[in-house]
Design a protein that fits this description.
By secondary structure, the protein is of the alpha+beta class. The chain is built from 14 helices and 13 strands. The strands form four sheets. A five-stranded mixed beta sheet has the order 9-10-11-7-12. Strands 3-2-13-8 form a four-stranded antiparallel beta sheet, with helices on one face. Helix 6 packs across helix 7 and helix 7 packs across helix 10. The termini are far apart.
């Protein structure tokens, strides 16, 4: 059996938008003849502290992240905890099974990317905002799914399961269950959709993209939809699902806030169309502090805590507002 070796936490068809020529073609609907994963972007790596120009197929991925082994012992333990009523039947029926067996979570990620939330993401990137309450709901769904599959959260959850002596496959299985549960998703997405939304639609590239791009703070969520479109959800302000604003200018303070959040959410690399801008970022105190933090800490749970990014998890509490 052949497993996927590279698991992209940010899809290549999305990160390709950070190539200026490709993005211009995309806006005109002329990108079909181009291969998204071959598009090159400038990448500022947090660990090497270097800027390189690379194809999007070679960034925002992790080797063998989605491959998980299931042993007979771990399978027994999992079924006994999650389906105790079916445990005896499972033991009888699995006696002749050949362990270990393996799962490849890339199949789930690929299926997710073909669903409406990611299709609407690309439509919004092209059109510069949502056009209906339905599109707003799908973008809310995208934000939740993208956070859960992000580099930091995925690795942190795998580490957390390991401390509980649970295997990697358990996180993939329970995550798939959660994503298949419409009510659980609704409980989280609906409060986000019913917040105040503002799209900042600009005429030039301003918004870079990091490996964990759903930028959550207690009062708002920011996400770069494209290098020229940023969404901010004001989580403390209730609004109708039919309510959103499209702004064609942005304050320097808002840009600075977005940039600082992007650096604070970077665990691998930041991509952008302009190498010059990334060189400026590389010199900032915020980026230097981030480099130091990443070099001195190896575990993702520790990094999330020590970087002050525990807000990453707050998206999970939105469902309690309803």
């Amino acid at each position: 059996m052949t497993f996927t070796k590279r698991n992209h936490y940010n899809p290549c068809f999305w990160t390709a938008l950070w190539n200026s020529n490709y993005y211009e073609c995309f806006l005109r609907g002329e990108e079909k003849s181009l291969v998204a994963r071959d598009q090159t972007v400038n990448a500022l790596n947090i660990k090497s502290d270097k800027i390189t120009c690379r194809a999007v197929n070679d960034i925002h991925y992790e080797k063998n992240l989605g491959v998980a082994e299931i042993t007979k012992i771990s399978a027994d333990s999992f079924v006994s905890r999650h389906h105790p009523d079916k445990y005896e039947d499972f033991k009888r029926n699995s006696t002749n099974e050949h362990y270990p067996v393996y799962i490849d979570f890339e199949e789930t990620l690929t299926s997710i990317e073909k669903m409406p939330p990611y299709k609407i993401l690309m439509s919004v990137a092209q059109n510069g905002g949502v056009s209906s309450a339905e599109e707003k709901a799908f973008i809310g769904c995208f934000m939740v799914i993208q956070l859960l599959r992000s580099h930091a959260i995925m690795n942190s959850m795998i580490e957390w399961n390991k401390t509980l002596e649970r295997e990697k496959f358990e996180h993939f299985t329970t995550l798939k269950w959660f994503l298949s549960d419409k009510q659980s998703l609704f409980n989280i997405i609906n409060p986000i959709v019913n917040c105040k939304w503002a799209f900042y639609k600009l005429k030039k590239d301003v918004f870079p993209l990091c490996d964990t791009p759903i930028l959550v703070k207690p009062n708002s969520i920011m996400v770069a939809i494209s290098p020229r479109l940023m969404l901010e959800v004001k989580t403390k302000f209730i609004a109708s699902e039919n309510d959103w604003n499209i702004k064609h200018s942005i304050s320097n303070a808002k840009i600075t806030e977005f940039w600082h959040r992007t650096i604070g959410n970077t665990f691998r690399e930041i991509i952008f169309s302009s190498e010059a801008v990334l060189r400026q970022w590389k010199k900032t105190k915020e980026f230097k502090d981030r480099v130091s933090l990443m070099r001195n800490n190896k575990k993702y749970n520790q990094l999330i805590q020590k970087s002050g990014s525990e807000e990453l998890w707050l998206i999970n509490s939105f469902g309690n507002k309803a």
